Amino acid sequence: MRMDLKLLLLVVLAVAIISDVAQGQGRFGIRDGGREPDDEAVGAGLRAEDHVAGARKPRDLGDVLAAVYLWKETRFQEKALAPFPCPERHWLQGTMDLKRIKKHPEHVLEHMTEMVQRFPRCFQQWIGPFRGGLMVVHPELAKEVLKTIEPKSRSYEYLRPWLGDGLLLSKDEKWRRNRRLLTPAFHFEILRPYVRIYNQATDVFMEKEGKEKMGRGSRYLDFLDILLTARDPDGEGLTDEEIRAEVDTFLFEGHDTTASGISWSLYCLAKHPGHQDRVREEVDSVLAGKDDEELTWQDISKLKYLAMCVKEAMRLYPPVPIVSRRITRDFVFMGHPLPTGATININAWCVHHNPTVWGEDFMDYKPERFSSENMKNMDPYAFIPFSAGPRNCIGQNFALNEEKVVIARILHRFKVELVTDHYVAPVIELVTRAVNGIKVKFIPRD
């Protein structure tokens, strides 16, 4: 009862403040960008009070409707989540210390790591008093959600003006059609020629005559060609708007996420020089006798220990730590019905740091977790840096190959060391970044 009363008061206060800002009334000290009104403005406002009173009634009705909606939405979430475990919930901050997070944003992932040790399967997560969702943190439960094609949650909608209705945000039949059309773009035969591009880009990064090499080679099928020529069974292709949405989506999903993966892999190898030396020996062996030092498509599969190191870095620092799904049909989860409209968050960070899955040494960097022998017994939903199920990342092989080539070429030329006294802690933005960035030293090999 006390929680309900606090919620009601919060709803009323929130709507009143929003209305105050929208109308410029200044009752809460929020007026005209925070500037204090002068006496003349106050006088004019008082004289006009009677004239605008009638005009405010529609807005007052809107305030009431907004309050009712916010109240019902919060109560809906509370009822949907009630069967599941919940950490201590503050009436204002929710289940997270928002004041601490504002000062130290890295606390979000620290909090997640603490929660998965207390609740190794799932738990409620409340951000403030109104926004709640279910955090899924165990592979068995993640599978139940990810094996469906439920659409992304409403929290992704802020990306729509930027990315359009591409694969990331589309749903239902449009998603199915476009996924079928775009899958051939990531077939192994299509990916093969891109290895040369990975090498050239790394040359540019290392300032090794990269620009001169960019013109070499023959024409090959690129991603835009696939988008322009793709046809469904009825002979219909993608519209110009759909092509633009997919280009924007792949630039977004393929840039920051891959950069995050490369950065954290180099950080881990700099932090663990023994593993770095072993990767370098492997790379040197593969590149032995090559004058141009370029890796080929066939070489990538030989970099087995590097692949293990890259995956272990992605386990510790998944590029996309959380993905959300919105239930569009009645869904039974852990024996409890979840109504249409409920939000389920698959927390890759927590799945990857779950001691019941990875053991008590889950915080340690141990690439051997991903040896072929160990992976035979690994739950396929225990390692989900690219999500999993039918809506997994369509470009994951492209990304992994790119990361391997870039890291291998760098380690062949340089020894990578940490920068002393530089604080590194992961923080959630659109992808997993370091709160102060990642700084490492590239030391040329003798």
From TrEMBL:
GO terms for molecular function: heme binding; iron ion binding; monooxygenase activity; oxidoreductase activity, acting on paired donors, with incorporation or reduction of molecular oxygen. Residues 1-24 form the signal peptide. Keywords: Heme, Iron, Metal-binding, Monooxygenase, Oxidoreductase, Signal. Its cofactor is heme. Heme binds at residue 393. SUPFAM superfamilies: Cytochrome P450 (SSF48264). Belongs to the cytochrome P450 family. This is Uncharacterized protein. It comes from Branchiostoma floridae (Florida lancelet). The lineage of its organism: Eukaryota, Metazoa, Chordata, Cephalochordata, Leptocardii.
